[in-house]
């Protein structure tokens, strides 16, 4: 039986469980949300729901904070990494598109 890779991104974990898994207080977790370092979903009742990827992100944030890195710096680093991923994705899409066009029109690379 194969495990669905999306299990890591499904927002199903409550803040209490996240607190237990990470060792962070619920207040710290909310603070990281306020600082736009983590983005939980909300239920209709307003409860936060996190994913396993969020838990990993929170652990990474906590480790950086222990090293003395400020939340602003962590946020800037996250934004740079996101932009880098977007640029890499764009390059891959362009290469795939070129390959499809070349295949469609019988263009051979030399």
UniProtKB/TrEMBL annotation:
Keyword DNA-binding among UniProt keywords: yes
GO molecular function annotation: DNA binding; DNA-binding transcription factor activity
Protein name: Transcriptional regulator
The UniProt record lists the keyword Transcription regulation: yes
Entries under Gene3D superfamilies matching the protein: 1.10.1660.10
Classification via InterPro entries: DNA-bd_dom_put_sf, MerR-type_HTH_dom, MerR_fam
Pfam family for this entry, one: MerR_1
Origin: domain of life: Bacteria
């Amino acid at each position: 039986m194969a495990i669905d890779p999306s299990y890591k991104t499904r927002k199903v974990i409550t803040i209490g469980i996240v607190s237990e898994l990470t060792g962070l207080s619920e207040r710290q977790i909310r603070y990281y949300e306020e600082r736009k370092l983590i983005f939980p979903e909300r239920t209709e009742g307003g409860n936060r729901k996190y994913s396993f990827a969020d838990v990993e992100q929170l652990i990474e944030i906590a480790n950086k904070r222990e090293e003395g890195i400020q939340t602003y710096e962590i946020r800037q680093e996250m934004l740079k990494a996101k932009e880098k991923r977007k640029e890499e994705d764009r390059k891959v899409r362009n290469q795939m598109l070129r390959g499809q066009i070349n295949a469609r029109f019988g263009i051979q690379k030399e």
